[in-house]
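Objective 1b. Sequence-to-structure analysis of Glycosyl transferase CAP10 domain-containing protein.
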Amino acid sequence: MGLPSKSFRLLPPLRLPYLFPFLLVISLFPLTALILYKVDGVVSQTKTVVGHNLKPTPWHIFPLRTFDEETRQARAYKILQCSYLTCRYRSDSTYRRRRFVKASSGPAEKCPEFFAAIYRDLQPWAESRISKAHLEAAQKYAAFRVVIVGGKLYVDLYYACVQSRAMFTIWAILQLLRRYPGMVPDVDMMFDCMDKPTISRTKHRSMPLPLFRYCTTKNHFDIPFPDWSFWGWPEINIRPWHEEFLDIKEGSQTLSWRKKVPRAYWKGNPDVSSPIRTKLLKCNHSRIWGAQIFRQDWGEAARSGFKQSKLSSQCNHRYKIYAEGYAWSVSLKYILSCGSVALIISPRYEDFFSRGLIPRENFLHIDPLHLCPAIKQAVDWGNEHDNEAEAIGRRGQELMESLSMDRLYDYMFHLISEYSKLQDFKPSPPSTAMEACAESLLCFADEKQRNYLNRSMAFPSQTHPCTIH
Ligand SMILES: *[C@@H]1O[C@H](CO)[C@@H](O)[C@H](O)[C@H]1NC(C)=O
Ligand SMILES: *[C@@H]1O[C@H](CO)[C@@H](O)[C@H](O)[C@H]1NC(C)=O
């Protein structure tokens, strides 16, 4: 502490007032330079949820977001501010404070049937349990790791995720913590944010690896987790689920069943290396195949502000086709929400709620080997059996209505709770992990993302989570 004044005393006393500012700058220069140098180091090494200092996942290359729009200083400021200061100095303490659910809130509701799939998804670890070694081995396939300890969330980022998937997925978990303060157990989870499952049941038979992603198949151990778009997909203007569902439902009611076009409708992107979508283009004939197939031109849609592709205006047909894309597709929930009969071309992928689908009950199955004739047959059957067809459509919509945001948090709550019971160690954040909080994500979000995040914010629940049994 004595050093600076000592060095000042060494300065010539003459004309000190004049020289002082200049000398001060000179004497502080090494310190400033040192700080800038250190800051530069920190900034160039800090990985962020929007992709700073991260490479894309090697198993799915995509163009990285560029940060050209930011100046170097603005970026440095943002990284320091959002990564290091925001969570530490936030005012909100809802995460840690346990709020007991009011006793008067009555018995908890029963969860939808498909919640039972949680036990099937976690079955591979029922005996072996989940060890640190499992997580270390799963890390090779993960884009990020989420560790919750004492209601605080820590993220260890390994790779960038495409668009805002990481931001919205981590946001989803933070909202779960807000909704059930003090109730989410300590947990250590690996996530990948890309479409295709990777933990093959044959290859990993001897040691199943626990990895969360948005879908799975019968041949994979990957554990399905609600996809980011339930909280919003700003890049293509898909709003948070509660808003989108209500709009679609309202839109679907503007036409009675009989007034809807008695044809099967599909609109999407056929160019996603999906053989089934390519095949589907060939069924585009109203009279011969009963189907109307349209190409979604995202470039065009973006230019026109996505008005034509508004999901709620896509419910004017009695039948809506679901065709998987590169893997599972987020469109399934919007298709089912229409109240039209969902014609589902036998899917290879499942997401967490598609296990609630029952053929002839809430959708009709389409055989991909006889694609166009199968569509024609379903459409003809439906048009001859108005009441039954309408009921299938309605039950599909009801399935989606039962999947409110509240139920979505309940699913995550049960999934994470059951998973945590399998851990044979006490989770603690790795040294490379950083705390994430709602404020830090809002801090990194651009204006549009912030708007979507804000609209999907959760509040402490007045009731208990639904019960599975
Ligand atoms: C399907 O047919 C309709 C009507 O003939 C046409 O407008 C539309 O562009 C066709 N879709 C594709 C993907 O070719
Ligand atoms: C978030 O939403 C609230 C009300 O819903 C509004 O008052 C606030 O300005 C919004 N904040 C942002 C950043 O959009």
